[in-house]
């Protein structure tokens, strides 16, 4: 009787152990019929617009992707790229939609690879149309101002989108250096004037400095002025472009290095499906379409800009 009891208990524990082993072998996949190795895709978007518009993008992107890949998609908006980078490294984030400057850091620290990049169409500094995985930074001012180029802003109060913005800080500063208006290792305030440099928390915050008369110009991406996502029609009607500079390597979808290649391909196909089947949604989410790029070539120009601009003093 006792031996039979022990045998029954041993069988029970053995069955439970096998069950636990099977669960552990599945990773975090709860649906064995899913072609993906994970049960949820976690995507981080770096904030670049007003909160309401950002939330709408999060919901729309999550629903559109989830419909295509068959598992839940969770979207978050971390306050800075360091949080996204840490998430990619510790596997709490699978994909980050970030600027090319941030993508450089992810690549250098070997936490993520470029999956796709934005494809834009607009006009270049010479006024000619273009289409490519890049865009241009612009300086905006009020329509009635007489400014014709960046040299006219010497000694004037200006606004950068943020200290980490590619189009709203990095590329405009690099342009100043290439034009010989700002020497390597020089001071930004020496050109614009002491106390005349404002750093915002995004595109809109920089433009608001111009609209309220606190700054004479703001450095932002071209689509802030040309599209209706960040500013109202009334706000844009009060502004004009002083000049364009760049090009700026477009934003990228970076996928964590530890995500299996099969998962990467399925997610890439789903994103490209949104572009092809829902062009208006693609324009709203990405400011254009998406395209595959050579990671090294795509990040080459921003790498050069970062190496030069990093020498500047505030």
What features would you describe in this structure?
- The chain folds into 2 domains: 41-121 and 250-294, D-Maltodextrin-Binding Protein, domain 2; 134-249, 3-Layer(aba) Sandwich (D-Maltodextrin-Binding Protein, domain 2).
- α2 (51-69) links the parallel β1 (41-45) and β2.
- Helix content is 44%, strand content 22%.
- The longest helix has 24 residues, at 2-25.
- The protein is built from 13 helices and 12 strands.
- α2 (51-69) packs across α10 and α5 (166-178) packs across α13.
- The protein is α/β, with parallel strands linked by helices.
- Strands 1, 2, 3, 4, 5, 11 and 12 form a 7-stranded mixed β-sheet that branches.
Mean pLDDT score, rounded? 86
Terminal Cα separation, in Å?
84 Å
- Enumerate the spans where pLDDT stays under 50 for 5 or more consecutive residues: 1-32
Shape by Cα distribution:
globular
Number of helices: 13
Radius of gyration: 24 Å
- Identify the quaternary structure here: single chain
Output the CATH class name of the largest domain: Alpha Beta
> How many beta-strand runs?
12
What would you give as the CATH superfamily of the largest domain? Answer: Periplasmic binding protein-like II
Q: What name is given to the CATH topology of the largest domain?
A: D-Maltodextrin-Binding Protein, domain 2
H/E series: HEHEHEHEEEEHHEHEHHEEHHEHH
> How many structural units, i.e. domains?
2
């Amino acid at each position: 009787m006792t031996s039979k009891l022990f045998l029954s208990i041993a069988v029970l524990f053995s069955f439970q152990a096998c069950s636990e082993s099977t669960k552990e072998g599945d990773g975090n996949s709860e649906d064995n019929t899913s072609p993906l190795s994970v049960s949820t895709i976690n995507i981080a978007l770096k904030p670049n617009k007003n909160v309401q518009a950002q939330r709408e993008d999060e919901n729309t992107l999550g629903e559109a992707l989830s419909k295509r890949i068959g598992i839940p998609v969770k979207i978050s908006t971390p306050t800075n790229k360091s949080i996204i980078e840490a998430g990619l490294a510790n596997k709490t984030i699978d994909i980050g939609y970030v600027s090319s400057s941030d993508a450089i850091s992810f690549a250098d620290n070997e936490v993520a690879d470029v999956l796709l990049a934005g494809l834009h169409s607009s006009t270049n500094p010479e006024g000619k149309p273009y289409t490519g995985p890049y865009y241009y930074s612009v300086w905006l001012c009020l329509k009635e101002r007489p400014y014709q180029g960046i040299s006219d802003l010497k000694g004037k109060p200006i606004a950068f989108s943020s200290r980490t913005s590619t189009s709203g800080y990095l590329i405009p500063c690099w342009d100043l250096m290439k034009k010989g208006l700002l020497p390597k290792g020089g001071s930004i305030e020496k050109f614009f004037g002491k106390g005349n440099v404002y750093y915002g928390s995004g595109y809109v915050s920089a433009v608001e400095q111009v609209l309220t008369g606190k700054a004479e110009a703001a450095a932002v991406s071209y689509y802030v002025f040309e599209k209706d996502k960040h500013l109202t029609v009334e706000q844009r009607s009060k502004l004009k472009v002083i000049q364009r500079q760049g090009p700026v390597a477009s934003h990228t979808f970076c996928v964590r290095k530890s995500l299996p290649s099969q998962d990467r391909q399925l997610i890439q196909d789903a994103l490209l499906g949104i572009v092809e089947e829902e062009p208006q949604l693609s324009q709203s989410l990405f400011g254009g379409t998406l395209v595959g790029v050579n990671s090294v070539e795509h990040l080459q120009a921003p790498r050069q800009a970062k190496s030069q601009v990093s020498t500047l003093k505030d």
